[in-house]
Amino acid sequence: MSKPIPYSYICSNVYSSNSQKMNKKYILLTITIFVLVQNVFSQTVPGEAQSKDIAITEATIHIGNGTMISKGTIIFSKGKISYVGTNPSINDNTIQIQAQGKHVYPGFIATNSSIGLQEIEQVKATNDEYELGEFNANVRSIIAYNTDSKVLPTLRSNGVLLAQVVPQGGRISGQSSIVQLDAWNWEDALVSMDQGIHLRWPYFNRPQSEENKSNSYNKQIQSIKDFFDEALAYQKTSHESQKNLRYEAMQGLWQGTKKLFIHTSAAKTIQHAVNFANQYGLKVVIVGAEESWRITDFLKANQTEIVLSETHNLPFREDDDYDQPFKTPRLLQAAGIPFCLGLNGFWQQRNLPFQAGQAVALGLDYEQAVQMISLAPAKILGIDQYCGSLEPGKDANIIISNGDALDMKSHEIIRAFIQGREIDLNNVHKELYNKFNTKYQRINSRK
Amino acid sequence: MKRSLASAILLSFSVILSAQITFPVNDIRDPDASLVLITNVQIHQDAKTLLKDAEMLIQDGKILEIGTKLNRPANAVIKNLNGAHIYPAFIEAYSDFGVSVKKSGSSNQAVSTREGAFSWNEALRSDIKASQSFVYNPDEASKLREAGFACVHTHYADGISRGSSALALLNDKNEHESLLKNELCHMMSFQKGNSSQDYPGSLMGSIALLRQAYYDGRQYLTTIKPKETNLSIEAWNQLMNLPTIFSVTDKLDLLRAAAIAKEFNTQYIYKTAGDEYQRIQEIKQLNSPLIVPMVFPELFDVTDPYDALQIDLADLKHWEMAPSNAAILEKNGLKFCLSASGQKDVKSFLSKVKKAIQHGLSQEYALNALTLGPAELLKVNDMVGTLHKGKLANFIVSPTELFDEQGKINATWVQGKEFSYATPTLNLVAGEYELELGEERIKLEFQNNTASNNEWKIVSKDSNTDIQAKFQPDYLNGKWIKKSKEVLLFSASKTGNDWIGKAFNSQGEWKDFVIRFKAIKQVDRVADNSSAKTSISTGSLWYPNMAYGWTEKPKAKTYLIKNTTVWTCEQAGILSNTDVLISDGKIKSIGKSIAAPEAIVIDGTNKHLTPGIIDEHSHIAISKGVNECTQASTAEVRIADVVNCDDINIYRQLSGGVTTSHLLHGSCNPIGGQTTLIKLRWGSSPEEMKYKSYDGFIKFALGENVKRSTDPNNIRYPNTRMGVEQVYLDAFSRAKDYDAARKQNPNSIRRDLELDALAEILNKKRFITCHSYVQSEINMLMKVADRFGFTVNTFTHILEGYKVADIMKKHGAGASSFSDWWAYKYEVYEAIPYNGAILHNQSVVTAYNSDDAEMARRLNQEAAKAITYGKLKEEDAIKFVTINPARLLHIDQQTGSIATGKDADLVLWNNHPLSVYATAEATFVDGIKYFDKQEDLLLRKKNAEERARIIQKMCKLKNDGTPTIPYSSPKKILYHCDTVEEEDHSTHSHE
Lengths: 447, 991
Prior knowledge:
The structure holds two protein chains of two kinds. Chain A is α/β, with parallel strands linked by helices.
């Protein structure tokens, strides 16, 4: 039920203030979107399918693959990128977005997130990321993914357009899927379904207590092995009846349609995890991997992919360099390890571009930093055929920032497109901002 | 009948009647009046005096005579000790021998479960007397005696005040005869122990409870007794006449206890944790005696380099240096005793003392610290501690000098009674032998390779046969395993140098069996007697003694930072191409082309200089609990009491430009504890880190945390925001009455530390920083403050401040917020990243804080988010983490901006300070460069070398056969507002 909206004009206020900086040609487009928005407070309506070709011109284009084009043009049509370069031919029907001095990026991809599964951390009813049980290979995050989460628009407005939605808990937490963040329901949000199985590797040498003595590291490894062995044996025959849902869910791993993501941090446990995956002939992605920089030779030899946790993290060990997490991306890049940056959590994902920027402060090449939150995760997630970079043939997942989007002092996303659809960059925070700005305008005008 | 018989027997002897006892015995009596003469001994009367070839006459458990040529009474039993050395027996100054701690029933009690008119708090057990629950424990006694102890100072080892102690003799008699003296000392600690009560739930709570106990003791008759009888306080006041032994779990706790002693004008004896060397200068100044345990970390297994990674350099260094602790104490002139307290196996105690000696402790000091030292400390040196006429015959016997490698305790004499552990000497001849059985001949060798000279084996020279033998004096038995696997059992007795006996073979036959002596063979044993005396070297002490610690503390110097961009955070704004001169810890001048020939020049070209970052809301550098969660108001607890100078996050935050941190109590209760303000003077003691004078603050909290929202079974008031208001109204009403009464007559009403703090708020001497989220309750607290006539100084977090910025402005409250956190709980569901900008635009003094050890390292970036969200001017954004928090903390006259005369708290950045690409090049606190990017590289190198050196040493020891343990890392907690747990100190909980 939609209520009469006393603040509806506020939305257009924000946008008109933004729009003033844009070329007037495009105000029309913006307004058409807000006509839809006006009736529903703090709701963003999914964008309409791209009907006209759009060209973003004279922009600094960060391709996402480690390269950059200055004063470049990107043209997209029917949701797909058709041209990226400096010598475009633009026909009259194409909507032009003058982006001189602005930065264009592929939509950022949040890897290892709980977006859409969590709304308010401490309110249990709003959390759907932890299932009970130990080996939950069958559990699927996608069906709990909430497209109407108030959090999503706050991420999009910072350039995060796609996300891997990962369940938590247990030894095997379940299956992740990839979504785009502008959808009516989880079905149209889907980019890649049930693409990963997430295994939480045991901690090694936790402080001794009676509890973990009886449940030692090696015993826990053995129980994982037992589960994998049983699942492997299970799939060798067909099961018309007496289906085992857990083992069924594992089949994609053996067939190569699902990837194994093992979450672990320490140099020693990463090696154990990779060796474990090798025993089953599985390619593995290590998630977290705080100490991956210590074992780059090993990782390279195994071609292990890494989803590296936050750069805004404390050093893993007391004695580590104070800036170790800031510089780990540079070390992995230099060693030729395939890796991307992946933050934990949901609302936190809006800082993804800044956490990538942090690595630049410690010497990572800027375009590599962009890559680590665009093409690199797309590759690791297996969606690089159609996502992750601004290259012809790929989905038009594009953001335009007034300034350098990896630096908070200049970050300002002004336009964004998912699969060519222009998306609403409004969010509940902007609305509250405007609501209370109105309050103070009224108070101050009375004075 | 029995009684009269007993007295008849007693009367018939003309002996010393002091041995008379009050209780009946179920036997005939053995009056202990016999004379014992010890002859042929080297008597170490005390650590300084040696009587060679001396004798000692003992009667009735006491030394009757001692000297070189004594008269020998005909009725004396003579004990010839063959030249052995005797020493006064050791005295254990800290023990719980025979005093078992009662298990507590339930837990989470708000009130005491004790019966009787005792303290409201179970951890105050001042009425307990160790002697009253003393039960002699023969098994423990036997272990302690074997380690050289004849008497122990014991107590009820549980709680904060533990009542009075007692001295027990390890004489294997009943309690009456074992107890030598009662009520020697008042025993204390910071651990509430078995108390089933919630309070205190943190170290700072323990400290507050103890301070209140002192005040209550002093004012008992005037303000308490008229209203209540309190047996605990009465007992406490009795204890005030005794010396106090305070047991601490680390060197910082020692300094904390010392602060209490100072406040109440007393002196403690400290039972320490063995890490005093790390704060030797501060501890030396206390001039207090110590009881030092000989507990050293065991050797960690470091053979897997990745396992070794888990051990922090702090633990590696302590492993290496702990055995040097006593030596360092001696070198610094401290007075201390050694204690076996905390030994896993008390039998290894002497070896630990020898280890301390190898690490530089003098033998003389060691002996004194085990004998006369504790005797004097406990004021029982008239009875024990040295070997002089009239004292108890408590001594130990060693075959050689005690602290030599061969030195060991062969016997402990307690009250003239011998308890011997020496295995009989075998008296064998090493050399070649031949086994004869029928026609068979096998060449053998008797070997003794051990230092103790008492462990022998037989080695067969024929590789096809194996002989295994066990020796007793003049007797042996064993197995002879032939090549055919036939096993013969044999035994033989010594006859001359040969051994003659029988062997029992597999056919069941008994055969004649002889091992015939052939020739002497001297075993070349490497004489290693010197090893106990050679001293072992260790690495140097760092400040703090962990990674990134200083070998030499940095000092204030004169620096000239040239040609840089200066973000003054003053009217002057941002100055380009400007020089800043700092000396004597202050900013001396700011301008173009400053000349200062004496200064160290730092080129600031293309760099930026900002004031040091000030974190208004931090929980780093706090020991053992950030929340005293147990009551709705705990205004009496103080973070200042529990500052932890060894937190690595101090150094890490310096690397992010932080110079001042406001350390807050958590947000567990509406009225939390008092805060403290530190500068990040890495390497300094807690006292040195604190601001010398600053306005006191106190943490308040609103909302979900204080109503215990995450606990579905909460029983603590308040349970709603409605209740929170009532807690405040109640607290301030009480405080108002209290303040008025005390102002009229300070002695008319009980001094109460909680109400003191609240009254300070009413008197505008203490200021509130209040954890807050939603607008309703923020508004409420301002109304409460208005009603009681004070101002809420700061709302911290204040994520809905943007909704009530006008009301805050009018009230005069400041805001200290997060840049962009939200959605972590229901009350932050309307938290917006534009909050700071709105508050600022409505002229509320606004700061961004961290509440997080990680975020604090990049508060400059958080400030920049006020540009991202809300488009603040850069000049204003930087103020969110510099001068604005300084204003909120009332230190803006001293720090927070770059102005002549202010503290030289500065950060030099390599880039625009609001950019994600900026990193700190150098951070100055009071003109001292505590962080420098280049010097940090050297510290890293130094860390790596120190690690490698110690790990090499550990590997070598492991190869040499020293047993190892796997390392298990202690739990380290990063505190946030709602952390209730303490650090894991289970390793100490056995005490």
